[in-house]
Amino acid sequence: MMSKLVDVLFGCTHPRYSFPVTLRGAARRSPAAALTGTYVVCLECGKEFPYDWQQMKVITSPAERRQYVASLATKQAA
Known about the structure:
It is built from 3 helices and 4 strands, in the order H-E-H-E-E-E-H. It has helices at 2-10, 31-36, 62-77; strands spanning 21-22, 38-41, 48-52, 57-58. Helices cover 40% and strands 17% of the residues. It is an alpha+beta fold.
């Protein structure tokens, strides 16, 4: 709880990202890559974020993650 408060006040704003990374095969995926298969890393703090190649954007908020999963579900159902 206290660490989240400190992170909000003094945390990284994630201004720069690495090039998107996609792991293929039996390699162990990070939690960020589990959503889209591709992820980027903040070059300032090292935090990983899912990356959507179709829209070419970083998925940062939980709301965007839910929306992405919902869109995948509707594509699979069709």
